[in-house]
Amino acid sequence: MNPNIELLSDHHDVTKLDCGIPQLDEWLRKTARISNERDLAKTYVIADENGVVVAYSALVASSIESTALTSRARHGLPTTLPAVLLGKLAVDMDHRGLGSHLLGHACRIAVAVREIIGARFLFADALNETARNWYLSKDMKAVAGSNVCYARIKDLAG
């Protein structure tokens, strides 16, 4: 089953998400709509039949320093590279498994961005080691000494 992923709107109830990380729950409640309105991030949600958000992700146009990448990934590239940042990804503890759908959605958007305006990488700054390991299990690579994980968008398109 592919859940319906849609842009956060006024009809969504953002008050009940409990992903186990209070700062992610609070960001959805207090900041997500403002970020959407101000074009600071676009928040995508999976909601239940009552409109209650059970998972979300936030995407941002960004850049990444090539020095953060492996020498193979940065070979012949400028210092600053266009990228799509998966800035937030959270899933309610009662709805585990939806994160893969949101990551897949982020990958599809990154591919579309690459085709329209150009972007080389999709990256995420994982909040902790568990999240970092989850991204690594999804074939992303890690920046040494940090929780930043990345994938070349060109590879996502295949």
Automatic annotation (TrEMBL):
PANTHER family: ACETYLTRANSFERASE, ACETYLTRANSFERASE-RELATED. Residues 27-135 form the N-acetyltransferase domain. Keywords: Acyltransferase, Repressor, Toxin-antitoxin system, Transferase. It comes from the Bacteria. It catalyses: glycyl-tRNA(Gly) + acetyl-CoA = N-acetylglycyl-tRNA(Gly) + CoA + H(+). This is GNAT family N-acetyltransferase. Pfam families: Acetyltransf_1. SUPFAM superfamilies: Acyl-CoA N-acyltransferases (Nat) (SSF55729). Coiled coil: none annotated. The keyword tRNA-binding does not apply. The keyword Repressor applies.
